[in-house]
């Protein structure tokens, strides 16, 4: 096939870098509120009817939302195989934690209300809480570690090796900076979840509690985000390509030289326009806190902008580095040397251009069909509700 | 046994994959059966079909959710435990997985919520369309996963790139229309349809034995038996196609299935029973049926099927040739930016056998220094464990034929004997419920265990594919999965049994009130209000 020559390799790589961001942000915007609602569950609702109502606000949609994550995984595998190979195995036990949460969550949604009994339901409620909070935290911790650099190196045959041993590797992930990022991530998804409850739950005790907790969480996210920025400026080294990358070079990370030093934030001097991302992050999350305090019904739009800005700022700051190595900077993965082949990127782009709009269309249709507040009678009338 | 990381990673993958496939076949088949039932409801407007849709739909939901949850494990595990595999073949293998998400999984997961929550929000026809979209999504999902798996069995459309040290796609159409993948897809989804049919048949038979829910049970048996009969036939036909394709490109797997140690003169006989003995290289107490194997494997009377001994000798030759490729590759990689066309053409001469040289990495860090004994040992490693594969295949095929018999019997009784069933047949239908799961798991054991020592046949050895993790880490996750999956399995079975015991009572009541509430709407515009 010659068709793939239509778009040159370097451009395709940048497109796929953007699409990677789109998928991760899509995941945070959709499944993010499910996880936020799950984590808030035991705190915003006390009685069983209240809890069922909260669960059923996300009941029909969490399943579709979760596919953003699965698709994200698949897209990393297909478009950035070295990234998939290094990150998933390097964060082995952390990934297992996420996996455990993602397995418990569907089961908890589905099985919780299939039996009566206080203990049974109470256990599943806490499972939902953990299954929402743990991934939110771990994703943030992972981002923090990516910014610090991950202790891996590639052998001459591009086999990834890691420094450290088993559980110590997991403990090493939990450094102060990463935990700070984890707090930001948890805070923004809690605020997002609270925003969803403002939209879908009838005003009452549930929304009151959601407003209170959500505005605190949003404030923590803003403060943590600002602090993390400062930390990057003062305490943590950045990574940079020593010489400009070759956009159409072979995908072999060892061919380029990456140096550790300076600050990540020098990207804002080189590409001033990217400052739009942190501005959106601050403004969106700020509005979300304000909206939660005032009880706006559509406050979720604000947290969407905030989350979009905060996640995008990480990627834009690091470009073109994707995954820096702290022990062997030359092994670091960059946009120019960690992608699939030209042909595969092109085929995957064609598939995405065809299917992503269709997905967005039917997802929008489903949300429209389900539009409106969830009431207690909705929950009790439908034998299939959670 | 030494606890090495390769064995542990394989154990974990096998466990989680076999567990995942406890839920997948029922999802594949039940989604279609439920959609068929709802279609009948839309066409006839009879409330009983709506009850059936809702009742079987509830059981579908309980099963579906575990299929989804355990499927995530599968996608993650490639990166977590098989990182060199992910690097080495991600360029080809990742694409179908990602397209599966785009094209199939999104569809199925988005609409499954509406299936359960949309009864009051959608028109009858729209809801039925939603149900079909769930079924189509599930089945497309299987298509893409099996395209990926088919490529591991028959790696077409890709070549090795020395600059990036990995396989890269050069013909997507070849990957897509890989005959192994296509045969596998129809074989696997048909097996799912049989599983769901046996399940619906068995549960309905239990109701008839107890004298409960006769309306629902008889109709369900009719649907399950007709759909099940067609599917059971399809499983065997496409299973035969898979066998034929395996004969073309996975000769070693074929020979292991047949425990055929030596090449027989064509057409080879089929060994019905026997006890294969790997050490002695013979099958004790073997009972042969002449000609049959030659016909299945080659569809001819004069093509030979190579035996294991000959294939080991062939592998030895390929290892030696692969060493040339390995040496040329090292030369290219040592040359940095000064790679000459001569180096490349020298590599390309024998690059098809590069994977065979990798087999030596188990014994030496540099295959070029391998001793004669190591080369012979590596050639011998290409023989999978014959005994389990031989028997797994026979159990699978035996059950496959049994399903045709069962389905045909119930089809005849339901079509021509006025839907009356003798009690012994109903009891048999209940007892046989677990059988399709056994057959499906056996099928995967043949397919995957029979592919060893390769993850990608002839390209990448399993031993080279793993991540460099600590034994402790993998032991920990294995223990985690065992505990976790056991608990989930107990909970799932408990709920399934609870809802089966309860029967469609609630669905019947709900349908009654629902029909009353919507009578005017269902009667269409212009009709007078009924009450």
UniProtKB/TrEMBL annotation, chain A:
Residue spans crossing the bilayer: 14-41, 53-77, 83-104, 124-147, 167-192, 213-234, 273-292, 299-323, 343-367
One Pfam assignment: Cyt_bd_oxida_II
Keywords: Cell membrane, Electron transport, Heme, Iron, Membrane, Metal-binding, Transmembrane, Transmembrane helix, Transport
Claim: Metal-binding is one of the keywords in the record: yes
GO cellular component: cytochrome complex; plasma membrane
MF GO annotations: electron transfer activity; metal ion binding; oxidoreductase activity, acting on diphenols and related substances as donors, oxygen as acceptor
Membrane-protein topology: Multi-pass membrane protein
GO biological process: aerobic electron transport chain
Protein family according to the UniProt entry: Belongs to the cytochrome ubiquinol oxidase subunit 2 family.
Protein name: Cytochrome d ubiquinol oxidase subunit II
TrEMBL record, chain B:
Mode of membrane association: Multi-pass membrane protein
GO MF assignments: electron transfer activity; heme binding; metal ion binding; oxidoreductase activity, acting on diphenols and related substances as donors, oxygen as acceptor
Transmembrane spans: 20-43, 55-72, 92-117, 129-152, 185-209, 221-239, 389-412, 424-446, 466-491
Highest taxon listed in the record's lineage: Bacteria
Matching InterPro entries: Cyt-d_ubiquinol_oxidase_su_1
Residue ranges the record marks as coiled coil: none
Family to which the UniProt record says this protein belongs: Belongs to the cytochrome ubiquinol oxidase subunit 1 family.
Name of this protein: Cytochrome ubiquinol oxidase subunit I
Organism: Mangrovicoccus algicola
